[in-house]
């Protein structure tokens, strides 16, 4: 009888595996066209909080802007090639380059010995220096030595951080995003900020509570990054186009519109001309900042956020639903294998559960998206997110279902077999439904948790609700109002499923426990 049960379970598991394979094919079919190579030249940046490099226009969030964005459009005209922008999180820009998600990255990346070990750079397209920003009316620092004994904020893995590291007396705080650096300065958590000239100008000089002080410090050069040892021909073409942009003045024109033409750039390019080019983009940005301060303007700005939040919510819900289907199917299979399968398969299932539960979900998602291509497995961001979340939650679902199956009385299986049911029929019609009724509340809680954990897929270029929140809050320096809207969106997504779970519980309840 035991061997017959194992054969039946093997057939049952085989059906579940076939279902999972079909599910993967369907999802891959839905997302496959997105992952196909495109004819335009692909370039990537993190536009979520990257003023003035590449960011979303404050007056029109559907429009990308920034001096690097304009520079890439001008570069495309010189290369006679259409350009395609690819959004990626800052930490994923270089891994995505190595994964061949795009051909180049331009995001204010400094040309340093450390960076040149991992990527190849074009010739510099912008040269600047570090600047100090302080609270208006506070202490004025002329140089780095004046910062000794003070708390100074900067961005991690930048030249500014390396400069501050040479002064042990300076208490350094590093951040992921520029907005957080300046928010802490305004709120008095730090005494000063040391950052690149463009960042200091667009975040510090535009804030009435802050001011840029002291002399320029050091030298910073930005370059376009290419995958190490690859695309040498494209890199040469880009260098030629950048040289042509310097010669014909188009690079000067782009920087002048953004009020970023500096003495360092004049010395680097040997361009001493002073064309009559108004800083129109700089003026557009400052006007947008000043016009967004009133309550009426803020209200209409929140109304304008609704389409973006709706788009992020749809992606969040789609990823969560697909991942939960995968988690339920795989989790039930793992539970049945551990309880009724052969000993070796049961050991493998137990090992899978312990390994997945014992490692962070974020690491698993990054491993699937960035690690598997080394073995020739290239998954689209959507499919990688679904698989990462689904495989992770399958381990937790397996333990829930195992507990539910074990709570069903052993006599239920024996009674079903006595009625001439096969083992698969007994599991399908008698044991599993009773266990499913018991684990329904836990499964609902797991789906709500998965819905919130779907925010982690933002690290693999998916712009869901959390990534939308980061982009909007950092652009407008508004974490409270935008946070309430995004939190409300997550709440609205979860409540219907809680209600559906309650209805399902009542339908599955035993007759003597149902309320009249």
TrEMBL record:
Main location: membrane
Keywords: Amino-acid transport, Cell membrane, Membrane, Transmembrane, Transmembrane helix, Transport
Residues spanning the membrane: 313-337, 349-369, 375-396, 417-436, 479-498
GO cellular component: ATP-binding cassette (ABC) transporter complex
PROSITE patterns: ABC_TM1 (PS50928)
GO molecular-function terms, A-Z: ligand-gated monoatomic ion channel activity
Subcellular location: Cell inner membrane; Cell membrane
SMART domains from the UniProt entry: PBPb, PBPe
An example Gene Ontology biological process: amino acid transport
Residue stretches making up the ABC transmembrane type-1 domain: 313-501
Pfam families: BPD_transp_1, SBP_bac_3
Protein's membrane topology: Multi-pass membrane protein
InterPro entries per the UniProt record, alphabetical: AA_ABC_transptr_permease_3TM (IPR010065), ArtM/GltK/GlnP/TcyL/YhdX-like (IPR043429), Iontro_rcpt_C (IPR001320), MetI-like (IPR000515), MetI-like_sf (IPR035906), Solute-binding_3/MltF_N (IPR001638)
Family recorded in the similarity comment: Belongs to the binding-protein-dependent transport system permease family. HisMQ subfamily.
Job of this protein: Part of the binding-protein-dependent transport system for glutamine; probably responsible for the translocation of the substrate across the membrane.
Protein name (record): ABC transporter amino acid permease
Native species: Acetobacter cibinongensis
């Amino acid at each position: 009888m035991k061997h017959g049960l194992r054969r039946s379970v093997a057939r049952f598991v085989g059906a579940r595996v076939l279902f999972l394979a079909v599910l993967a094919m369907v999802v891959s079919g839905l997302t496959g066209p997105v992952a196909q190579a495109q004819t335009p030249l692909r370039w990537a940046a993190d536009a979520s909080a990257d003023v003035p490099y590449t960011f979303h226009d404050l007056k029109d969030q559907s429009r990308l802007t920034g001096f690097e964005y304009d520079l890439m459009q001008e570069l495309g005209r010189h290369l006679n090639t259409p350009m395609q922008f690819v959004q990626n999180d800052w930490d994923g820009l270089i891994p995505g380059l190595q994964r061949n998600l795009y051909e180049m990255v331009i995001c204010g990346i400094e040309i340093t010995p450390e960076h040149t070990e991992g990527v190849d750079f074009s010739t510099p397209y912008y040269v600047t220096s570090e600047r100090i920003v302080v609270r208006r009316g506070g202490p004025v620092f002329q140089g780095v030595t004046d910062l000794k004994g003070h708390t100074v904020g900067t961005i991690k893995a930048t030249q500014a951080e390396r400069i501050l590291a040479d002064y042990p007396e300076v208490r350094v705080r590093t951040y992921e995003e520029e907005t957080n650096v300046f928010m802490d300065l305004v709120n008095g958590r730090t005494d000063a900020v040391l950052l690149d000239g463009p960042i200091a100008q667009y975040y510090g000089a535009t804030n009435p509570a802050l001011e840029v002080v002291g002399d320029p410090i050091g030298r910073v050069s930005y370059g376009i990054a290419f995958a190490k040892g690859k695309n040498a021909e494209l890199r040469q073409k880009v260098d030629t186009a950048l040289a042509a942009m310097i010669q014909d003045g188009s690079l000067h024109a782009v920087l002048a519109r953004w009020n970023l033409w500096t003495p360092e750039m004049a010395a680097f390019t040997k361009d001493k001309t002073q064309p009559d080019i108004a800083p129109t983009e700089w003026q557009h940005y400052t006007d947008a900042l000043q016009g967004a301060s009133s309550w009426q303007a803020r209200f209409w700005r929140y109304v304008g956020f609704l389409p973006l939040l709706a788009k992020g919510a749809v992606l969040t819900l789609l990823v969560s639903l697909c991942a939960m289907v995968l988690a339920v199917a795989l989790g039930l299979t793992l539970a049945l294998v551990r309880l009724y399968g052969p000993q070796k398969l049961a050991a493998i299932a137990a090992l899978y559960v312990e390994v997945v539960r014992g490692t962070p979900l974020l690491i698993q998602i990054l491993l699937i998206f960035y690690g598997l291509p080394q073995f020739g497995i290239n998954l689209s961001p959507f499919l990688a997110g679904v698989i990462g979340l689904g495989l992770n939650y399958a381990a937790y679902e397996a333990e829930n279902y195992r507990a539910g199956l074990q709570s069903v009385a052993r006599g239920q299986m024996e009674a079903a077999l006595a009625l001439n049911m096969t083992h698969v029929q007994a599991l399908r019609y008698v044991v599993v439904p009773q266990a499913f009724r018991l684990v329904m509340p836990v499964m609902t809680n797991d789906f709500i948790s998965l819905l919130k954990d779907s925010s982690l897929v933002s690290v693999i270029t998916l712009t869901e609700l959390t990534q939308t929140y980061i982009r909007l809050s950092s652009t407008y320096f508004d974490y409270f109002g935008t946070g309430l809207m995004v939190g409300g969106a997550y709440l609205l997504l979860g409540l219907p499923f809680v209600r559906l779970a309650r209805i399902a519980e009542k339908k599955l309840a035993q007759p003597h426990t149902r309320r009249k």
